[in-house]
Design brief:
single chain; binds adenosine-5'-diphosphate; elongated; about 350 residues; about 25% helix; binds magnesium ion; alpha+beta; Rossmann fold
């Protein structure tokens, strides 16, 4: 169990690439933190600096209030799980899980107890004598987690551990990781580009953009109250509806549409109106109108897509409905939103204005 602190950490690779541009955060004991962001935004670099696999160009990292910048990876008491499992191919599952403990000189009986316990917890106790190539992808990922668990580290570090698994297994493993982390209470940092994984796993998540934290908070806080266009677009599935707009004569103008109810916006800049698909619903008095072009039935939820009418550009809108009567393709449909669910952003800076 441990706290982790990043104090204005920076990473410039020898080739001059600035991967991390000053990131600070305080992680509490037992917290599950997720770094989420698009590929190349610096997530792995940050995690590898915590693990000690990359040097820190500037700033420092503390574990339990002790600066660990110059502590070797083996002495940091962290365990990392990678996307590609990184198992030793010529060793059995038991051998892979026991390896780190043997290196530390633990007694054989103690190693066996720890490996057996972890294997049971991960439901791989029937495979302990197999080699990695005799296991499925999901089982291999469990072995990689088992190897981390037996070390009883202060901090778990996960770098996209589920990316190589098929969709169904990914969901199953996601739930298991969350349960295990709850049960063990080990401080964890988990890196992913997948917003669903981030939303479902995190106690708090940090949305990373271009080496910086764009926003950090509880998943629902970021969903309900994104501070920037980037966060609003990255978090949420289906994707938030974004409509180009300007503020003219006290109305929000989107093409030929004039929307009342908006106040105190700058008149001279390009804006973006954002409304989540959950907050649009069919209503004959709706402010927006679409021509339906696609209906996706997901079971309980249905997603309806269509082109926004009277707008100057090709804006596609999506809304979510649980109703059984679905609109016909090509039909026109008015959609209503409550003013409180409308977000407005400065298009060029991404800053949220409303
Ligand atoms: N060893 C390296 N040398 C130079 N640049 C690197 C190295 N590793 C990563 N980068 C660059 O740093 C940036 C962040 O990479 P990374 O942390 O791997 O991103 P992510 O994990 O979010 O996809 C990228 O632009 C990447 O090209
Ligand atoms: Mg990465």
């Amino acid at each position: 169990m441990a706290t982790v602190k990043l104090n204005n950490i920076k990473k410039v690779y020898p080739n001059g690439a600035e991967a991390v541009c000053g990131v600070s955060m305080a992680i509490e004991n037992g917290e599950f933190i997720v770094f989420v962001g698009p590929s190349g935004c610096g997530k792995s670099t940050m995690l590898r600096m915590v693990a000690g696999l990359e040097t820190i160009t500037k700033g420092d990292i503390e574990i339990d209030s002790k600066v660990i910048n110059n502590v070797s990876p083996a002495d940091r008491d962290v365990a990392m799980v990678f996307q590609n499992y990184a198992l030793y191919p010529h060793m059995t599952v038991r051998g892979n899980m026991a390896y780190g403990l043997k290196n530390r000189g633990l007694a054989k009986a103690e190693i066996n107890t720890k490996v057996n316990e972890a294997a049971k917890m991960l439901k791989i106790d029937d495979y302990l004598d197999r080699q990695p190539n005799q296991l499925s992808g999901g089982q291999r990922q469990r072995v990689a987690m088992g190897r981390a668990i037996v070390r009883e580290p202060k901090v778990f570090l996960f770098d996209e551990p589920l990316s190589n698994l098929d969709a169904k297994l990914r969901v199953q493993m996601r739930i298991e990781i969350k349960r295990l982390q709850r049960r063990m209470g080990v401080t964890s940092i988990y890196v992913t580009h997948d917003q669903t994984e981030a939303m479902t796993l995190a106690d708090r998540l940090a949305v990373i953009n271009d080496g910086r934290i764009e926003q950090m908070g509880a998943p629902i806080e970021l969903y309900n109250n994104p501070k920037t266009l980037f966060v609003a677009s990255f978090i949420g599935a289906p994707h938030i509806n974004l409509i180009p707009a300007r503020f003219e004569n006290k109305k929000l103008v989107c093409g030929n549409l004039k929307l009342p109810g908006f106040k105190n916006l700058p008149e001279d800049i390009e804006l973006v109106l954002g409304i989540r698909p959950d907050f649009l619903r069919p209503d004959t008095k709706g402010q927006l109108e679409i021509q339906v072009d696609l209906v996706e039935q997901h079971g309980a939820d249905n997603l309806v897509y269509g082109a926004l009418k009277n707008s100057s550009n090709d804006t596609e809108l999506c809304f979510k409905t649980t109703q059984n009567t679905l609109p016909d393709i090509d039909s026109n449909l008015k959609l209503k939103f409550e003013q409180k669910h409308a977000m407005v952003f400065n298009k060029s800076t991404g800053e949220r204005l409303i």
